[in-house]
Specification:
292 residues, alpha+beta, five-stranded mixed β-sheet, 7 helices, 18 strands, globular
């Protein structure tokens, strides 16, 4: 099932993509907040499912919103595709005994699936990263590999927009030994640097052969199967849940494949269109615009 939030004629509605149509499920769910739907899924699912055959159709101009604009935690994996590790200039990742590397983004980074990505005077090397994102459906602490996937409610698509050369414009900068790491980390935090959507897809709808893909101005720049990830979804949940408690509505973005702009020598510019897709889930399309 595909569930999202749309705006139409100044109104916000909970929407379900069903048999090629968009059905208004607001009344059945009693909310337009997808975090609440995820949290109360066992109760709300029968009501939502029962409403789909005869529900009101949403037609005309609608605008899909970020499905989870303020998740309790927005976590992302770094270097989770081997080819991307290499293109980033690092030594190849060892084949075994690796721990996932993860970080967080602020909710102010999250924008909708068709909103504009701002590029500012502080950006010197703005880049794209198409990613599969996992939505947590139950409170999870110290998961095991055997039960980790039970924590997954569903999936969405994220573009982890990254500023690769933060502070490069600073004259006569005196650098500390860890400045490069913090430049990389803070470069992930710009407002509007995490397009998300176009909706959430329940866990049972993820194809086993799903691929992560991206197109820049119509040219394909990223394409890899989920099987190319170093750490599986279950392994990431096990590791993260031994550090912190996962909660319903948390988002874990699983890292990006090779083909980012820095490696290709083609970073994002004003007017670019960057599209990110996970097959079977959906595609987000965002223009890059110079911020005023």
């Amino acid at each position: 099932m595909k569930l999202g939030v749309v705006r139409q004629n100044g109104s916000t509605r909970l929407a379900v993509v069903y048999n090629g149509k968009i059905v208004d499920a607001t009344e059945a769910a009693g909310t337009t907040d997808l975090k609440s739907v995820v949290t109360e899924w066992e109760t709300l699912y029968p009501r939502i499912a029962a409403s789909l055959e005869h529900g009101t159709l949403l037609t005309g101009d609608i605008l899909w919103q970020a499905p989870l604009p303020a998740p309790p935690k927005f976590l992302l994996l770094a270097g989770n595709f081997r080819a991307h590790v290499i293109e980033s200039g690092f030594a190849p990742a060892p084949e075994e005994n690796l721990t996932p590397q993860f970080f967080m983004k602020p909710s102010t980074a999250i924008i909708g699936p068709s909103e504009e990505i701002p590029i500012t005077d502080a950006n010197h090397a703005l880049d794209y990263e198409a990613e599969l994102a996992v939505v947590i459906g139950r409170r999870t602490h110290r998961a095991s590999l055997q039960d980790a996937m039970q924590a997954v409610w569903g999936y969405t698509v994220v573009n982890d927009i990254s500023e690769r050369k933060l502070n490069d414009g600073m004259v006569d900068r005196k650098k500390r030994s860890n400045d490069d790491f913090y430049d990389w980390l803070v470069g992930k935090w710009f407002d509007g640097s995490a397009p998300m959507g176009p909706w959430l897809v329940t866990a049972d709808d993820l194809p086993t052969d799903a691929r992560v893909q991206a197109w820049l101005n119509g040219d394909q720049v990223q394409d890899a199967p989920l099987s190319a990830m170093i750490h599986t979804i279950a392994e990431a949940i096990v590791y993260i849940s031994n550090v912190l408690t996962l909660e319903p509505g948390d988002v874990i973005s699983m890292g990006t494949p090779a083909g980012v702009g820095l490696a290709r020598g083609r970073l994002l510019q004003d007017g670019d269109l960057i599209e990110c897709e996970v097959s079977g889930i959906g595609r987000i399309r965002n223009y890059v615009r110079k911020a005023l």
